[in-house]
Amino acid sequence: MSADDALAATTSGLQLNRLASKYELHSQGAEARVWEGSLQARPVIVKQRFSKQYRHPVLDAKLTVSRLKQEVRSMMRARKLGVRTPVPFLVDHDASCIYMERIEGHSVKTLLHERSLQESDLEALLVAIGRTVAKLHDGGLVHGDLTTSNMMRRQADQDLVLIDFGLSYNSIIPEDKAVDLYVLERAFSSAHAEAGAAMFERTLEAYRRASKQWSATLNRFAEVRMRGRKRAMIG
Predict the structure, then answer these.
(1) What are 5-50's pLDDT values in tens digits?
(2) In terms of CATH architecture, what is 3-101?
(3) Residues 167, 202, 225, CA angle at the centre, nearest 5°?
(4) Range with the largest mean pLDDT of 101-110, 193-202, 221-230
(5) How many CB atoms lie within 10 A of CB 154?
(6) Residue 14, CA distances (Å) to 9, 17, 195 in order
(7) How confident is the model at residue 144 (pLDDT cuts 50, 70, 90)?
(8) CATH number of the domain at 105-234, out of 3.40.47.10, 1.10.510.10, 3.20.20.140, 3.90.1720.10?
(9) pLDDT score, position 49
């Protein structure tokens, strides 16, 4: 291990210890750890991006800062488009952390798995998903990880809130929006197998009704869906 690598590893360890002393680890994924706690008496989520040891420390630091900035910019842009997201409070570049509002509620994945929603509530939720994604796409923003795990229904007002913009990016290309929709379709079919296809179609109809640019996107979506199904058949 080089001196730079050793320094990066030591710094990462110190940052991890500092967070662990103040916050509770909520979850850990491939790209980041998520912590829960409070900041100035406000309940917060702290998203900490991992350092990639296979990258040169200087390059790793630059890429991490760039992705932190992009994630926060995407949340702020989504909010301007009328899409509800957690409010970002603080970005700590040194610790590779974003401190943001903690959404009190349940993920859409959990709600659909529990099957406790009345038909009218389910319809309202699926329509809200379609309209929310339409706002995002019409505004030139692609989520990048559009799954029911990354959608929350806030307990206080029942509003739909999109979370985890770590893979988001700006795009007006129909193909990119179509891939976003295909990811959502796969999420519905894999996580909610029995009724997932029907729920997605209701969501897609709400998207079509709400989007001003639906034609090009849905035409491309049909092609993306066909390619995906061919890959699945071939294995």
Answers:
(1) 432 333 444 455 667 678 889 888 878 899 999 988 899 999 998 7
(2) 2-Layer Sandwich (3.30)
(3) 55
(4) 101-110
(5) 14
(6) 9, 5, 46
(7) very high
(8) 1.10.510.10
(9) 87
Q: Which residues are catalytic?
A: 145
Q: What is the pLDDT of residue 78?
A: 98
CA distance 195 to 184: 14
N residues, the chain: 235
Strands (E), the chain: 24-28, 32-39, 42-49, 88-92, 97-101, 105-107, 141-142, 151-154, 160-162, 169-170
Q: What is the pLDDT, as a whole number, of residue 128?
A: 98
List of residues 6+ apart from 215 with CB closer than 8 A = none
Q: Cβ atoms within 10 A of the Cβ of 23, count? A: 21
Tokens of 234: 């071939």
Tokens in use for 10? 């030591």
Q: Among 181, 80, 183, 85, which residue's Cα sits nearest to residue 139? A: 80
* Alpha-carbon torsion angle 135, 140, 144, 146, nearest 10: 10
178 CB neighbour count, 10 Å cutoff: 22
**What does the pLDDT average to over 66-76?**
94
